[in-house]
Design goal:
By secondary structure, this protein is α/β, with parallel strands linked by helices. It is built from 12 helices and 14 strands. The chain has a single domain (2-323), classed as TIM Barrel (Alpha-Beta Barrel), CATH 3.20.20. 33% of the residues lie in helices and 16% in strands. The N and C termini lie far apart (49 Å).
């Protein structure tokens, strides 16, 4: 990918805005009213070093069709010469941090990669006698310091952590960060740090996650897409309780949010909800039946759970007075249809901020005309 990127160079703001236009218009057809982009400024993922400007352009020109929250790659953070009383050692210029922006376009978490992938054998997992198999994305001391500095500068931390050893590093760093306390006043709002993916959790880690209030952002379609490979690699019997935990996380009080990791897996929330309930692989094998969720729980993870993970639960994620009137009209009830039908339920209309942004059947024609 880098060879191609180095040859073609960064995309222009206009071309990137066109891509945002096409992508977010498609999201509406899937019933998505808002999303988090976890790739801003990350080498190998970003489209231009000034990608936030492209989002701003798309919004100004009416081409941002859903609400967007963007994460910032930790590699963009640098030393900041702040007042000693502030204790901000690292961050972005001008002290900008999580929460900057508005209901349509805002800064989310600092995104940091702790390890690699499970199928690529680069996830950091615990081995015999405390050894670590796989690899960390950087020196563990550097990763730890990045997490602590981001916390103290007022940032929510979103840590890509696949293996259980990577999870240990994140939990240890966040506990140390919490002991030191945030430097930037949050107005009583907790940081609500996030673990992205969390493919492997040991039982002892589940309790720590709950005590620390860390949200696990899971990708249920990974079970369908990669579950068969995991089954083959473990002789057909993976420790399903350690992979893709869902039920045990909720039972322990760990906040759970549904996600896709698009384009790694399909982005349809309805397909993700079905995967949470069914937990079956592409070949039809059941992957960890004890970790299945009910349709109500799965639906909540993609609505209220996602809003909470983005600090947006006072504005979206639930249908209630004085919310932002983001809603979707479905052709059937995902909590009552057969499980294997959830993912194919038709999205009849998608409303963002009280406006019918996607309404092929013109269900809201009178409201739009008014």
């Amino acid at each position: 990918m880098d060879l191609v990127k180095n040859h073609v160079g960064p995309s222009s703001l206009e071309r990137t805005a066109q891509a945002i236009d096409r992508a977010t218009a498609h999201y509406l057809t899937e019933g998505i009213t808002g999303f988090t982009d976890a790739g801003i400024g990350s080498p190998g993922i970003d489209h231009t070093p000034v990608e936030v400007a492209a989002y701003q352009l798309a919004r100004r020109t009416g081409r941002l069709h859903t609400r967007a929250q963007v994460m910032v790659f930790n590699g963009l953070f640098h030393a900041v010469a702040s007042h000693p009383d502030d204790g901000i050692l690292s961050g972005l210029d001008l002290g900008i941090h999580t929460g900057f922006g508005d209901d349509w376009l805002s800064l989310g978490a600092m995104k940091i990669w702790i390890d690699g992938s499970g199928l690529g054998h680069t996830a950091a997992t615990t081995g015999p006698n405390g050894t670590v198999r796989g690899s960390f994305d950087d020196d563990p001391a550097v990763l730890t310091r990045s997490i602590i500095d981001a916390h103290r500068a007022g940032w929510q931390v979103a840590a890509h952590a696949i293996g259980d050893a990577a999870v240990d590093l994140v939990l240890d760093a966040l506990e140390e960060a919490d002991r030191r306390g945030p430097s930037v006043p949050r107005g009583g709002i907790p940081p609500r740090h996030r673990l992205e993916h969390g493919v492997m959790f040991r039982p002892d880690q589940v309790g720590r996650l709950a005590r620390m209030g860390i949200t696990v952002v899971t990708q249920p379609l990974f079970i369908e897409d990669f579950g068969d490979l995991l089954l083959q690699g473990s002789g057909g019997r993976p420790e399903a309780g350690d992979y893709f935990r869902m039920r045990s996380l909720l039972a322990a009080g760990v906040p759970l949010a549904g996600s896709s990791d698009r384009p790694v897996s399909a982005g349809s929330p309805l397909r993700g909800i079905q995967a949470m309930v069914a937990r079956t692989t592409a070949d039809g094998a059941v992957f960890g039946a004890d970790e299945r969720l009910s349709a109500h729980e799965a639906l909540a993870s993609y609505t209220a759970g996602g809003a909470r993970a983005a600090h947006g639960e006072d504005h979206w994620g639930t249908l209630a007075p004085r919310r932002l009137a983001d809603l979707v009209v479905l052709g059937d009830d995902p909590t009552s249809v057969a499980v294997d039908r959830i993912g194919s339920i038709q999205v009849l209309a998608t409303v963002v901020g009280g406006r019918a942004a996607h309404d092929p059947a013109r269900l809201f024609a009178e409201a739009d005309d008014a």
